Amino acid sequence: MSYAKVLSVGLVGVSGHLVEVEADLAPGLPAVVISGLPDTALHEARDRVRAAVVNSGQRWPNRRITLNFLPATLPKFGSAFDLAIAVALLGGSGELPLLPLEGVVVLGELGLDGTVRPVRGVLPMVAAAARSGVARVIVPVDNVAEAAVVPGVRVRGVDTLHRLVGFVRDAAPLIDAPTPQPRPPLSGPDLVEVAGQELGRRALEVAAAGGHHLSLVGPPGAGKTMLAERLPSILPELDDESALEVTALHSIAGLLPADGGLLRRPPFQAPHHSASVPALVGGGSGLARPGAVSLAHRGVLFLDEAPEFSRAALEALRQPLEHGRVHLARSRGGTEYPARAQLVLAANPCPCASPAGDARCECPPLTRRRYLGRLSGPLLDRIDVQVRLPALRAAELMEPGFSGESSATVAERVAAARKAAAQRWASVGCRLNAEMPGPHLRRVPWRLPARDTVDLRARLDSGSISARGFDRIIRLAWTVADLDGRVRPGRADVAEAIQLRTGEGL
């Protein structure tokens, strides 16, 4: 037999596709030809696989070898096909009977000594195999715990090509998935550690309950960073669907913890202000990798000292914030990653960053305008909650009476508000107030009475807010009402929403 076929999986973004690895061995001068839109890493597989086969005690076929990856129109990236290539070659040469691998997906990178090394993106690969009806997969032993997260699939691990050959030829045992161990409760920053700042706490709670973006402007030491770092502690744990999405993204980026289990806590990303556009939104040659905004999917993207980021990097966030996805176009095709993250911006009011705030600012008015002007109007228009934090007083910092509620207490209210919003918007397919399309909010039965929105309408007519800002204030009003246990927002809720959006009257 001179032909063999083994199943594997290719990734484009977070979408996996079943790939058939074909090997045909024909008489002629020894050579290896690879077709099916392979990238550089896949072209180099011929040398890795040859060394691994020989060093595993198998005979390399000295014939003309053609390797093809179906579907041929789908770009193939990475080294996860190495193990499937080796098995297909040995099957085509007659060295291995491939019947035990019928309907089995094989994934893994090969070292020159025949060891099977872990690869990125195993979770979305195995999930794609399961969607295609595959019930058995073989993965590197270091990826077994990660792959076992996908329900309905039997996962086996291999550490060497020699072990896999023994399994196919002699039914030698493979490595089973470990029994999942319960994770200890996660600990982290708690809101009780934040002194004073009732305004900041309220803004944080509203942002968490509705999934709204947040901007915090204030002098150094006011608590901007402390508040932002504690936002994940008041967010609910991720449900199964969101946890799979988040875990898949971290798998592609190679950031999963060693136990490989589902990530249940909302992620928190805080890139340095020198981060480039690809670092924020994703990029790279070949298969574009997810950036910070995608790694913060269903969690928090925190930009501390936001005006220090490059203008191009900040403007690149506008489209992901609006649509919840990042589309990265490349010459060989586009890649799309989910990016529904909560953006939190923190900034000093001016470059001199006086601890006393405006009272002792040494910056000329033009300098102050230029500094915060680095945050463009279109970007800020997408930030629902925009508050200015005052400098802390000594009493707030030193006296126990100014300590606020713990994260656990606030998280209970946030969870109840999110549950109310999810039930209300279920018919529209939304879970959070921030996700609700503006046109729906302006129609019956969700349109608010004119008496409750009279102040908001006046601001729109005067041009002090945009149409986008109008919708975002309505969403904020719904969140305020949900937190306070009201079925619908009233005029007071709209007024607080206006204050949270504009900072006026706070």
From TrEMBL:
Domain of life: Bacteria
AAA+ ATPase domain: residues covered: 210-393
Matching InterPro entries: AAA+_ATPase, CHLI-like, Mg_chelat-rel, Mg_chelat-rel_C, Mg_chelatse_chII-like_cat_dom, P-loop_NTPase, Ribosomal_Su5_D2-typ_SF, Ribsml_uS5_D2-typ_fold_subgr
Signal peptide as annotated in the record: none
Gene3D superfamilies listed in its UniProt record: 3.30.230.10, P-loop containing nucleotide triphosphate hydrolases
GO terms, molecular function: ATP binding
Transmembrane segments: none
Record Pfam families: ChlI, Mg_chelatase, Mg_chelatase_C
Coiled-coil residue spans: none
Similarity-based family: Belongs to the Mg-chelatase subunits D/I family. ComM subfamily.
PANTHER family: COMPETENCE PROTEIN COMM, MAGNESIUM-CHELATASE SUBUNIT CHLI
Name of the protein: Magnesium chelatase family protein
Organism: Micromonospora nigra
